[in-house]
Design goal:
The protein is an alpha/beta fold. It is built from twelve helices and ten strands. An eight-stranded mixed barrel has the order 1-2-4-5-6-7-8-9, surrounded by four helices. Helix 3 runs parallel beside helix 5. The longest helix has 40 residues. It is globular. The site of one magnesium ion has 4 residues, from loops. This is EAL domain-containing protein.
């Protein structure tokens, strides 16, 4: 019996292998191609930044923007970060790409400030590998100096799962960044199971409530309660709260009633290329300005 079982497992295994091999090969080939293309994307200027407005709930004014990377691939079209940021991390390309994002975003924010569009706070996303790079502080400092952007106008977003990778490293790094006056936020809050006792040791300014909770606050009582609790937790720790993924007026009203500070989502605007974001800002300026 044992022999028969082994034999059929082998047979099955072989069949599975034959069945999956072409698809695995296809996927590996696609990855290899993307990796090669990504290596050249920076010098070919195919990477581009989109900006999504962050709106103050009480004044309705745009107070910041989150920078979101896109890859304008010559044949494959516009590729979202979900399809290449992990690859950039695995290949180490994230170092150069991350520095480009930081430099481009800071320069852009300074340009908007000089054009009289207001002192926006520009937020950029740091992936786990970027956050663990020993030259992070120096890179941030020199980029701020070169662009002339005030450090308090730069916000660095680190996901809740990234901060939990190595908590001692996180506490040290966040303090170094806080010392130069950069704003710090925890992204995707609520998805990473961070310990609340660590949270108060992180010198952060903002919690960003993950969009998975925001999505159905008006239909799912549990998620509504979670969002409400995160808001009061943040306020008790003297942090601001930004809700992401706000798509409807009902979601916005709930967040406003529950004293959320800022909101971001398709209800206000999708992420926009720089020129369109600029036009969005101009519409937002009060008439007398
Ligand atoms: P994230 O930082 O949590 O960004 C929020 C994501 O939600 C963005 O997706 C944004 O386009 C999307 N979003 C905004 N408003 C809405 C809404 O109302 N409804 C829905 N359904 N989605 C909304 P995106 O641009 O595809 O970025 C995905 C993730 O990729 C980001 O999540 C961030 O973790 C990462 N990422 C983006 N840009 C960069 C970057 O420059 N560097 C690094 N390391 N990661 C980045
Ligand atoms: Mg983010
Ligand atoms: Mg997020
Ligand atoms: Mg996310």
């Amino acid at each position: 019996h044992a022999d028969i079982a082994m034999y059929s497992a082998k047979e099955k295994g072989r069949n599975n292998f034959q069945f999956y091999a072409p698809r695995m090969h296809e996927r590996a080939a696609k990855r290899l191609r993307l990796e090669g293309d990504l290596r050249r994307a920076l010098e070919r200027q195919e990477l581009t930044l989109y900006y999504q407005p962050q709106v103050d709930v009480n004044t309705g004014r745009v107070v910041g923007a989150e920078t979101l990377i896109r890859w304008q691939h010559p044949e494959l079209g516009l590729i979202p970060p979900s399809e290449f940021v992990a690859l950039a991390e695995e290949t180490g390309l994230i170092g150069a790409i991350g520095e480009w994002v930081l430099r481009t975003a800071c320069t852009q924010a300074k340009k908007w400030e000089q054009a009289g569009l207001g002192k926006l706070r520009i937020a950029i996303n740091l992936s786990a590998r970027q956050f663990s790079q020993p030259n992070l502080l120096r890179t941030v400092q020199s980029t701020l100096a070169e662009s002339g952007l005030d450090p308090s106008n730069l916000e660095l977003e680190i996901t809740e799962s990234t901060v939990m990778v190595d908590v001692q490293h996180t506490i040290r790094t966040l303090h170094e960044l806080k010392n130069i006056d950069v704003h710090l936020s925890i992204d995707d809050f609520g998805t990473g199971f961070s310990s609340l006792s660590y949270l108060k040791q992180f010198p952060i300014d903002v919690l960003k409530v993950d969009q998975s909770f925001v999505r159905d606050i008006t239909t799912d009582a549990d998620n509504a309660m979670i969002v409400m609790s995160v808001i009061s937790l943040a306020h008790n720790l003297r942090l601001q709260v930004i809700a992401e993924g706000v798509e409807t007026v009902e979601q916005f009203n709930y967040l406003k009633e529950n004293k959320c500070d800022q909101v971001q989502g398709y209800y206000f605007s999708k992420p926009l290329p720089a020129d369109k974001f600029e036009r969005f800002l101009q519409q937002d300026l009060p008439a007398e300005a």
